[in-house]
Specification:
By secondary structure, the protein is α+β, with helices and mostly antiparallel strands. It has one domain. It is built from 2 helices and 7 strands. The strands form 2 sheets. Strands 1-2-3-6-7 form a 5-stranded antiparallel β-sheet. A two-stranded antiparallel ribbon has the order 4-5. Helix 1 runs antiparallel to helix 2. It starts with 5 loop residues before the first helix and ends with a strand.
């Protein structure tokens, strides 16, 4: 864990929690260490990309800035382009409104 990068530490902790829960719920599924490492690397990559765009991480798959809220930004919903950019598919992107309880969906 890196003391200087608290958001990344949070991301790693949440990824470990997800992996533990998937083992418990599936019973027989045991992802290899390489699979776990790959998922964590992708989660870190997504978090770094979102932070570079000015988003703050709320949870491992949730981000927000002053205008938008993004949910379900997990590796299977993000494509990695050959141009180095990330392309979000099947994520929920909401435009923030002045009223915190009311959201407008953007598709």
């Amino acid at each position: 864990m890196d003391r200087e990068n608290a958001p990344i530490n949070c991301l790693l902790e949440q990824a470990a929690s997800i992996i533990r829960r998937s083992k418990t719920t599936t019973g027989t599924f045991e992802p290899t260490e390489g699979d776990k490492r790959g998922q964590i690397e992708k989660l870190i990559s997504i978090a770094e990309h979102m932070q570079a765009l000015g988003f703050e991480m709320d949870y491992y798959d949730e981000f927000h800035n002053e205008e938008y809220e993004i949910f379900d930004a997990v590796p299977n919903n993000v494509l990695y382009g050959i141009d180095g950019a990330l392309y979000f598919i099947d994520t929920q992107i909401r435009l923030k409104t002045n009223d915190q309880d009311e959201h407008v969906s953007v598709k």
